[in-house]
Amino acid sequence: MGTILIVEDTPSEMELMSYYLRECGYVVINAETAKDALTKAISQQPDVILTDVVMPGMSGFELCRSLKKHPATENVPIVICTSKNLEIDRLWGMKQGADAYITKPFTREQLIRVVKSVAS
After folding, report:
1. What string of pLDDT tens digits covers the 120 residues of the chain?
2. What is the pLDDT at residue 64?
3. What is the pTM of this model?
4. Which of the 8 DSSP states describes residue 72?
5. Comparing C-alpha atoms, which of 40, 38, 3 is closest to residue 18?
6. Who's near 5: CB < 8 A, 6+ residues apart?
7. Which of 39, 77, 96, 100 makes a 20 to 30 Å CA pair with 3?
8. Rounded to an integer, what distance in angstroms lies between the CA atom of residue 98 and that of residue 96?
């Protein structure tokens, strides 16, 4: 099916997303910080990157910009998965290079649908 890099600093959220994706046949790579995610994205070349926005150190928005600037990751689809549900947040996320934006809480079906939509 493909490999998904999940960038999430909340263990319960990470566990839930990992479970849903593995259940559908995806290989999951976990990163708790954006800096860790950058390293893993470059070295492991995931098919899709799922990132939170509010994280210590570097935000998901900053991570998006960094990934889109790097030759090894510039074409990897990015899904922002966050509790920031205002339209301005969604617009800003897309402007930073995100391919899709999903808000928490989400259902299993919503998560799988958005990953499939950017992966194809």
Report:
1. 799 999 999 999 999 999 999 999 999 999 999 999 999 999 999 999 999 999 999 999 999 999 999 999 999 999 999 999 999 999 999 999 999 999 999 999 999 999 999 997
2. 97
3. 0.96
4. T
5. 3
6. 28, 29, 30, 31, 37, 40, 41, 44, 46, 48, 49, 50
7. 96
8. 6
Q: Give the tokens for residue 38.
A: 């950058």
Taking the alpha carbons at both ends of the chain, their separation in whole angstroms is 11
- 3-115 belongs to CATH 3.40.1500.20: no
Q: For residues 55 and 22, what is the distance between their CA atoms, to the nearest angstrom?
A: 24
Torsion, Cα of 18, 20, 23, 24 (10° steps): -110
